[in-house]
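User: Before I run my own analysis I want an independent prediction to cross-check against. Here's the chain; please return only the structure tokens and, at the end, one sentence I can use as a sanity check.
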Amino acid sequence: MAAVQLLWKIVIPLPYDGPKYLSANELFHLRTSKTLLKKIGGMSRPEFIPNTLEPTHIFYNAISSIKKAGNFTGKKFPFYFNVGNPFSLESVKVNIRLFGLDVVMLTITTTSSEIDIDMFDLESAQRLESHKELYDLVKAICGLVYSGNRLITQFHLTPKYFPCVFISNTQSSETISDSKAVELLIRHRGTLSSIVEDVLHKNNGHKLDSNSILIDRQGIVARASGCEKMLESGIIQFNRSQCIFELAVAISRLITTEKFNNLSLSQQQSIAKLINNPDVIINQSTTALKTWKLLQKEFVLKEMLSDCLTHNDISNEDYTEPSSVNNKQGWSNKKSTIVSISVAMLIALLSWVGIEKKLNLTNSDKIAIHIPIDGSKFMAKQQKLDFEWLQVKSAKHYILFVEKYRETDAKWVPYERITTHDHALSLPIKQSGQYRWRIIARNSDMETIGNSELCYLSVL
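Assistant: Structure tokens:
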């Protein structure tokens, strides 16, 4: 007999005109998500911190009919399954976290009674669709999160989920074979032995003991067997891995859906540090660091970040923490404080000043927008739109970036890029939809000396 814990990570990129959960919302209370970082462990400088969306009674009322239809019991999470479901599930808990402004991650965690592992269909069990009542409940929750409206529980998209499976057995030294575990992980039967070896090999780096935690971009399959102490160790490793996996998925979606641009400068820098210099951030746990590096490679985060910054006309080096900074004014302004703090805090402070200086994004370098004002609306029949911004001293030319929101895959895509020596121009925009735009100013040395905020407009 063995115990199987089924867990799914679901990613929901919110629509452009979707809910703003950092503001007051009737469905959720906003809390800082300390649990995620605590489970990861080893992070001495956790700067990009998600928020927990804690369901309110209005949320529970909104899903009450779905809960009743699925024969779930319980006023709040965890909900309990009706007796006799085909996969012996006993309870389900849902955690909801917000990363940045508009990427939400759901963690669906179930418990189950012990089963005969040889007779249990693990392949089917890890498919969320196999659990009809649970799948209907999850889709309703996705609909609420996506809409931010208690009256809308329909979710017309297919939930993008990543299964995480934990198999434990305290009465035997075995759970399932390596080949079976790899097949479960990559969701492909009859996997070649060479692929099995490759998956095992790439996961050796974060292996801590005889327990097995197999990870790739599709999910996690963890196995723990033996004494109670080994089981406890396996649970800790699995929880750490699934939390790091969640962080990697969320950051990946922030970058690939171009929601990275909606983050604050400090959040962008924090993510860049985690991707470019993970040894500095995760410096208290070798296992956590190696797990992060594996997932960073699986989701090609470095390459995607570089592409994202290139598209935004910013060098990846601008987000790399410099080793030394020669800034006498910065030293003078903070001298009294620096004398009283530790050497470590001094280095971090000077590095931050260096980043701010290198990025040329201080308040004095922000370009003020004159027209169109943020949130403007125009008719498609209007032949041209006028853009105008405050002239920047020493600017040789300006670059206007315009992007259009593509509804089909919820991405911002390039629409127009124009270089001009003037601080105003006209541009024909005849397609209806949502647009955003910004301005960059460059000097004669092609250095960025000014950068506007993103402004949004609608063409009806």
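Sanity check: The CA atoms of residues 40 and 255 lie 22 Å apart.
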